[in-house]
């Protein structure tokens, strides 16, 4: 077992496509790190550089204190679970799991012992004699993991391992992976584009955009203190709401009304004209179900609810609003970066299940003003960030840098699409 | 309606069977007829008086046995070498990016397009100079060069089908490139390898023009060429029975080999490699 240190890693493909740009991430021994980002953000490329399947253009890859830039994959002693499992179809489950051990020249008895142990852990005992072609998706996934845990690798690498499973199985396997990693205590790097997996599995999460590191922090830090608009929009489901805002003293003018925010936050956002306010859906509530002492004029507004989705424990209310052009452009771009498609600017409000608000109602909504973040619309930076609780944020304006790289990437001929997501 | 289709299918099936197998049955039937019967002129379909004399004669014919040995040796060696070279070449073509990849492929195709007859003359002269005339290598080399293109094309198509991830997985699991190739890629390409092997073997086993032109004695003459020397004592009365028997004897190995390899050509071997 060993830590993995990435120092200023750069990957540029032969045709000039800059896939990964100056990324530095430190994975501690035994840590579970998630690399997350929308498709094309270079997270898989980064993982493949760790394992040695991609050459490193520049920077240092250090595993267990040893620089491994020029080592072949087999000399790095890492094990990897591929997105499509990559099981050997001509071998039985037993032989698939035994494959790395056989290559290492272990004795038959030792191989048998280890394979049995791995298959017991993953509950594959009754499938050992079957071929991968006869297994279900979840079973294949477990065989792929068996192959990874059977030898004493320095670290586990996962490349979107759950993306081919259906929703229910995905949830189960997610828990299983988490449990396995905690038990084995082995350094793990896990690539995903699914923010739920990122939040639930990771000790720390590195958010990438266009091959530029945006923020590297614990899930809680990412959620509560996103470094910029991109991270704020990416982490959380349903995503954070972005509203045009004007700050005057400690009063913030939103499309629906004016709320009062704490002095300390307001101070960081003074002297600016138009800002973007970020409010998570759960920081809104139906005023009628909130404790009456919290409900003041400064913290409530009324709006017409367009659609309500009632889920039992909670309900999502959608409230459309008009955004000024300056902000709209930034928001549309952001939506595109997040692999989404913005049809309209609307507010998503998470309401208590007990709320009686229904479609078409004029509702009084309370907002938790302490949790409002304010972003600079031109750079995307979070102005109200608490730097002590935001993990590692690379210097410079990372969002703007990602934009710049994005333009370079788009400039490379479309044939460069060979880069994996 | 459904009945009609079934009946139609069966009629077509039987027609094709008769069309294809009647000559074969005729040859087999001939091989059991005595000389008197084949020379009589008004031969009937089934032998009147079945005899194994023809088989006894042919299997005690030293020249024929030598030719059979040559055929076997030459076909097996040519097949083996062609498949090994084609596997390596096809792997490189499917996996590696190198300059002139297209050139290699089109050149291979161009070679396959040359009619064998046009090369017989030059080869004859060259082989005499090099001392390859009437030797095994003298036939193995041209057989390989005529079968390699097809083998390379077949195999590179098979290699392209194999997910590259499997090879990378093997490398991460600790395999060298060679181990990954041998333990993962080749077993998966086995159907392709066997297809290429069968095609090559057929070509080498049945080839006539080169075999008759580049050999002069039974030291290297193969069966198809040797059969043309089965003329018998009377030029107006060829030994049909013997010829038919020889044909049967050379066809049997082919059938055995096809049956053996057919098992290996299992389609869909790669299913389940990737994707859920």
From TrEMBL, chain A:
The gene is ugpC. This is Sn-glycerol-3-phosphate ABC transporter ATP-binding protein UgpC. InterPro entries: AAA+_ATPase, ABC_transporter-like_ATP-bd, ABC_transporter-like_CS, ABC_transpr_MalK-like, ABC_transpr_MalK/UgpC-like, Mo/tungstate-bd_C_term_dom, NA-bd_OB-fold, OB_MalK-like. Transmembrane segments: none annotated. The keyword Cytoplasm does not apply. It comes from Nocardioides pinisoli. GO terms for molecular function: ATP binding. Residues 4-235 form the ABC transporter domain. NCBIfam families: PRK11650.1 (NF008653). Residues 394-421 are annotated as: Disordered. Keywords: ATP-binding, Cell membrane, Membrane, Nucleotide-binding, Translocase, Transport. It holds the Pfam family ABC_tran.
TrEMBL record, chain B:
Residues 68-261 form the ABC transmembrane type-1 domain. It comes from the Bacteria. The chain crosses the membrane at residues 7-28, 72-91, 103-124, 136-159, 184-205, 240-261. CDD domains: TM_PBP2. It is a multi-pass membrane protein. Keywords: Cell membrane, Membrane, Transmembrane, Transmembrane helix, Transport. This is Carbohydrate ABC transporter permease. It comes from Nocardioides pinisoli. The lineage of its organism: Bacteria, Bacillati, Actinomycetota, Actinomycetes, Propionibacteriales.
